[in-house]
């Protein structure tokens, strides 16, 4: 007698009770129908106790199986094309889904993260004339309001809007800094009338002079996100320098 257990109690649907013996062959006439129904009929005909997770077989269809077959052969035909397999122990059969050995294809995965103020420094694509954080003055990712020094930021958007091509163009627009030209190839940066002889280039302290500044000042700004201009003492970051 077939007596399925309630799925809410077991998670498995038991499709048959154990029999005293399993016939060598069983005569079957199973049409193409839901797999759960075919397994139930095979269980009744063969005496096998077949168990399967109801979520595995709920939407599966079984092909037609007819003729005099061994129960194992009949079960194999019913599971053909379903992606399921069966494990037999004596009179008990458990239907399961084997682990896939092939490549696994994942669906679309959306990755998002919450970034703190340290991740707000980049200005490219923001369309803004300011930035979320700066670190040139203190090495700490602080907002401009939290930074205890006067700092100006020339953002990517402003560089593009005002057509700045190199560092010389930036100095022309930066408050508190003056560009002095010596002929066509030499220039000097001044602050409060004093020559600037140290810069932070990509975060590294760099000593410059009138003869070496052109190698830095002529660099193409297309490579850089922004320029930060710190006014006031920066000895903590750059060491001893000139009064500028």
From TrEMBL:
Signal peptide, first to last residue: 1-23
Alphabetized InterPro entries for the sequence: Plug_dom (IPR012910), Plug_dom_sf (IPR037066), Secretin/TonB_short_N (IPR011662), TonB-dep_rcpt-like (IPR039426)
Pfam families documented for this protein: Plug, STN
Cellular component terms per the entry's GO annotation: cell outer membrane
Domain of life: Bacteria
Keywords attached to this entry: Cell outer membrane, Ion transport, Iron, Iron transport, Membrane, Receptor, Signal, TonB box, Transmembrane, Transmembrane beta strand, Transport
Subcellular localization: Cell outer membrane
Membrane disposition: Multi-pass membrane protein
Record flagged with keyword Protease: no
Keyword Signal: yes
SUPFAM superfamilies found in the cross-reference section: Porins
Domain Secretin/TonB short N-terminal residue range list: 48-98
GO MF, one example: siderophore uptake transmembrane transporter activity
Family designation: Belongs to the TonB-dependent receptor family.
Protein's UniProt name: Outer membrane ferripyoverdine receptor
